Amino acid sequence: TEEEFERTLECVRRARWDSGFLFKYSKRERTAAYSWDDQVPEEVKPERLARLIALQEEISLGLNRNAVGKVTDVLVEAVPGYDPEQEINVIKGRTRTNKSVAIAPPKDGFFPVVGATVRARIVSCKPVTLTGELVQD
Fold this sequence. Notes:
26% of the residues lie in helices and 29% in strands. The protein is an alpha+beta fold.
């Protein structure tokens, strides 16, 4: 029901998860809900999913803003990887808390190897990704 869905939104507001893998509900055989008669209408599912995603993105962006200006360790996952938004090759990695980071390429052209840990200052963010610059120790 809409009331139950509102309770789901309230749960997400209170939990304040960093991120979520969100999908519209679909029936699954061998589950109790599979045989229920009062299924959510198909036209309601995408609207509810959009509301849930918007809420999670708002929370994620707020949490990610806390990282801006801070220096953090980043485990390098890919070098270089193309970032179409920045239109440059970037070092892709993850923080210790599993946040995705795109780091601007170093001016000297030196790219660390995959598996290395680098220090990065977070300079901006979006709901799903942080953007950083390498910090020379």
